[in-house]
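Retro notes, structure queue

What went well: the backlog is down to a handful. What didn't: a couple of records were mislabeled last round, so from now on we paste the full input next to the output in the thread. Example, using FAD-binding oxidoreductase from Antrihabitans stalagmiti:
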Amino acid sequence: MTPFESLAAAVEGRVTTKADATATHRDWTEITRPWNLQVSQEDAVAVVDVDSITDVQQTVEFAAAHDLSVSTQRTGHGAAGNAAGTILLRTNNLNTLEIDATSRRAHVGAGVLWGQVQGSAAAHGLSGTPGSSPGVGVVGFTVGGGLSWFSRKFGLAGASARSFTVVTADGERLYVDNENEPDLYWALRGGGGDVAIVTSVELQLQPAPSLFGGRMMWPADRARDVMLAYKAVTADAPDDLTLWLDLLHFPGSPTPLVALDCTFLGAETLARELLSPFDSIGGPLSDTRATMSPADLASITGDPLDPSPGISHAVPVRIFDEDVIAALLREPIFPLLSVQVRHLGGALRAGQQTPNGPTTSEHLVYLFGSPTPDRPVSLIRDRLAALADDLAPYTGHGKPLTFLAPGETMSAALPDQSVRKLATLKHRWDPNRILRSNYPTPAVDDLVGAEVTVH
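Corresponding output:
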């Protein structure tokens, strides 16, 4: 019996190696593929589709015994292409979901997607803290920080985590909260899944008795007018109001567009009053704004649900002024698909005892391209680099780990003191570095001035 055959005999789920795929005429590229088709994971040594927490423990213990690493993955939206020598641990089947309407808590397995949580919570007049896509895994989004539609009101998604059930690098199952292993609890609320494998999370839900949202869209020749309205409205917007500005150029369309996406946790009448500067911009092509259910948040941006290739870069900017507007409008965004500006501030300024700490940048510019025959990778990367250079004079520091791109490190997202603390915790909980997240925690020895304290 080979080592992986012994693992297959020990777990309830499915173990697949490249040899297994070849023998059964299955495509190893497809088996290891993450949601982001631009990222290859063919250099993984095996894929384990776990059916239980015991399966997770068995897989981790097997990896430790055979000098391998484990990379946990639900969808692979944030895959970074660092799967060499790892077992890909797929959590799709850890799909329990329970809503406690009385305590406003959601108990969410690592296989659950945001669309499922929002649909179940909305039935009780509640909402989680999701991003734009219903197809993103809740646990990965949460441990990566997670910038939500409602982060200005409630902070990053990581701040809504009240407890975790985890498997540590030595195969131990632990319940973690602010009273039980508080340092590990802190690390998992935005520091990535590099210190323990999260098998479930308990989330604080929020009341959402009234929600207004939608998208307005104009031809690109109105971009400056929309940006000036965005600047004016975000200058003193209440925390209940979130605005995302989009410069768009869809594949196959000769005409670029500009859009304004919004949500407001409150009555439609007040929302429309706050958003009135956008109504004075003539020539809108569409306007989907309306009172809506939290279950329908995904309709605002219409993010794709099927896997697709993507290349991105996120730039936190300290301010949004005439100079930033000029930098964004200096050249067409082609060959990019979108340039999105997200308003931050509000509760994000507080930090809420998460690895991200207080957010000092007021906006986040997210640059995204999807390769097609007329938009090759090289052109997309060149345009991303040029726009990042144009924004350099206004760039701040800090973003959720979920906004990192392959080639970046944890230090591009988190404050230095958080990176040092995470390195210390990694040394304590996983000294042999068996667990590997998308953006691994650096070793303590690689950090200047770091001190290791093992409790």
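Agreed that this is the format going forward. Reviewer comment attached to the example: The radius of gyration is 22 Å.
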